[in-house]
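User: If only I could read backbone structure tokens as easily as an amino acid sequence. Underneath my words sits a plain record pairing an amino acid chain with its backbone structure tokens. This is the protein in question:
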Amino acid sequence: MPNALSPLAHKLSNFAILSETEMGVLDDMHRRRRNFAVGHDLVLQGQTRQAAFILAKGWVCSYKLLRDGSRQIVDIQIPGDFLGLRSVLFRTADHNIEPITEIEASEVLGKDLLGAFSKHPRLASAVLWAASCDEAMVVEHLVGLGRRNARERMAHFLLELSTRLMLVGLGTPAGFACPLTQYHLADALGLSAVHVNRVLRELREDGLVTFQYGQVTIHNLDVLTDLAEFDRSYLDQEGPLLR
């Protein structure tokens, strides 16, 4: 995969100016490319000695199952994201990862990843910066579940997806392709599917955003941003030490 087209390289370029050698290391991480079908988990909670993956194409969700069979989606991953990075460090996966669409993901063994970071600390810093943004998203999701109402929660989630996709060249301020169903949205936002449907209808009728036929169209970015109190700085801050 050429570096210029790699979603991971595109993403990390927002945090650091990487050398040709470092870009070559990223390119090398895509050697073990694998395809995964929809609905077949590629990482299972409790699995040990699990490799990490770099998502090249498609969308996945990370989730945890409860005793009653219900699930909570804790993250949605898009091209350019690492999958199971914590599993390499913790040695045991603490969540499941399921493809939402057919995906292409490059398997990266823990020893290869840590070796690359050891030889190229600047690259490791860029990945750490990106991981810090992922951690910031977890904080925002926690605030959303605890303090935002359903409309604010939905607006914030869609704007966050928009920003993340723009960082890897897959979205624009006007909208983006989105394969999520109302059930995915319900599990991610702590709402029922019926409530999700009602909120999306209200946002559409208010002229703010439309989510239909796999496409999110943002009609009024300023008002939607104000509704969600969305501040994109937690996702696209520059890494000054890496410039």
In short: The chain has a mean pLDDT of 88. The first helix runs from residue 7 to 12.
